[in-house]
Amino acid sequence: MSNVTILNDLSKMLGKKGWVDGDDSLAWHRDWLNRYGVPPLGVARPSSINEISKIISLCNDHAVHIVMQGGNTGLVGGSVLGSKNGIILSLDRMNKILSLDEASGIISLEAGVILGDLHNFLDKTNLMFPMHLGSEGSAQVGGLIATNSGGSHAFRYGMMQDLVIGLEVLLADGKIWNGMRSVQKDNAGYQLRKLFCGSEGTLGIITKANLKLFPKPKQEFTALLAVKNSLGLVELSKKLREEAGEFLTAMEFFSDTGLDIALENIPDLIFPLNSRSSFYLLIEVGSGSKHVPLNSIILEIIEWGMNKDIVIDGALASSEKQRSNFWRLREDQPEGQRRLGKQLKHDISVPPGSIVEFLDNAYEICNYLIPGIRVNSFGHLGDGNIHYNLSPPLGQNDFLDLDSKIYLKLGELATSMSGSFAAEHGIGRAKVMMADKLRDSTERNLMRELKKSLDQYNKLNPGVLLSDK
To answer: What whole-number distance in Å separates Cα of residue 413 and Cα of residue 361?
Structure first.
């Protein structure tokens, strides 16, 4: 059967709102970094699980594969096609918040709900969902689950797999797994909901979720500190854990190089300190009680850092607007570097105590391969997640075909330190070969067997996470 037949069938079944093809579908076909993606046969935008089931049946009959796409904010090419003869499946029309159980702290929603819309919905309640990303204005809940996203508050509240209580998933054969339970303690065998967290759309299509919520803090303080060097970052984070551990919600760091890039390329950013330094630390503390002296705790730690010649300068946010401005200095860095031109993005994690060693060795590796390379390192100090992003030297527009060598060297370095070359962005298409080289063959074969058991004919996101050969 020809592709013309399936395209006509999909168009007829889904209608104008539910089926996009031709030039109109090209808006979906490239990833955020414009590195991956070929034009799809079309984009299916179903409005119900029954429509998804029919799409799967048609695609199976016509040997057409399916690539799931949320907000397309991923950075490893996992939500676009790697080869022809496939469609993109977007759940952007399945974006309803279904119910809220305030007593239990659980919200039920469809997979197409945008993270920012979830935050806005919860603004009217005393609850919050503790995941924040620079891309929360477009990232969808289903995609966040499929990639097991982390974000700036992961070291306090966990990654997406820790926040998912229940799931509804449509499998490759069209069957529905209804795991929409609303209890954290469910020890009735394999934890299937966690299996789909981080599966990157290769095992099934996540259609609904039950998510864990938390009480909103009754008081919060946000501080931005100029820190002398990377060793000072680690020493300061240790002190923060000791003195404010249960109240810490975020510890985000970035470099002076990254600050320059952001200030140069993003309008309206405001740097509030009088002094510049090698690194900066963004701290946030919060408590559900008004009686905890958070202000005194954070000021004492800052004073300690200044006395130790670790902290050069600092400021406490005095309003929600200033707090937002502090966060923009950190969260707008990826966009600032994207506007600068070509870049290499690395998503690394190492034990927090090994951050200094990683930063020192990684710079030596990169500068040896490309002298004068510009390093923008930033990330989540609390859990050791470093976004190690590179731009070519000034006056140079590319990386002299050393992209793959740099990726592998940094991945090897992180692995040698009991870390990971894929901390929260996942494998996608970009890191499949690296995963095969740096992870044990037993681990990779277990993943292949699991994939085959749930998607026998490799119809869901072929080439993502695992080679499709």
So the answer is: 8
* Domain definitions of the chain by residue range: 3-90, 97-215, 219-334, 341-438
CATH number of 3-90: 3.30.43.10
Three-state SS string over 394-455 comes to CCCCCCCCCHHHHHHHHHHHHHHCCCECECCCCCCCCCHHHHHHHCCHHHHHHHHHHHHHHC
Using CB atoms within 10 A of its CB, is residue 92 exposed (0-12), middle (13-18) or buried (19+)?
Answer: buried
d(CA 442, CA 445): 5
DSSP class of residue 392 equals P
Are 224 and 323 in contact by the 8 Å Cβ rule? The answer is no
Beta-carbon neighbour count of residue 263 at 10 Å? 15
Q: What is the pLDDT of residues 147-181, one digit of tens each?
A: 999 888 898 999 999 999 999 999 999 999 999 99
Q: Residue 160 and residue 286: Cα distance in Å, rounded? A: 21
Model pTM score: 0.92
One-letter amino acid of 52:
I
SS3 141: helix
Mean pLDDT on 191-209: 97
Percentage of the chain beyond pLDDT 90 is: 86
3-90 and 341-438: identical CATH topology = no
Of 271, 229, 275, nearest in space to 253 by CA: 229
Q: Report the CATH number of the 219-334 domain.
A: 3.30.70.2190
Terminal-to-terminal C-alpha distance of the chain: 24
Q: Which CATH class is domain 97-215?
A: alpha beta
Closest alpha carbon to 7 in 50, 58, 63 = 58
Q: Does domain 341-438 have CATH number 3.30.310.50?
A: no
436 contacts 467 by C-beta, under 8 angstroms:
yes
State mean pLDDT over 282-291.
94
Question: Is the sign of the CA dihedral 134, 136, 142, 148 positive or negative?
Answer: positive
**Average of per-residue pLDDT across 234-252:** 94
Q: Give the count of beta carbons closer than 10 Å to the beta carbon of residue 90.
A: 25
The three-state secondary structure class of 465 is coil
Q: Is 315 helix (H, G, I), strand (E, B) or coil?
A: strand
pLDDT classification of 342: cutoffs 50, 70, 90: confident
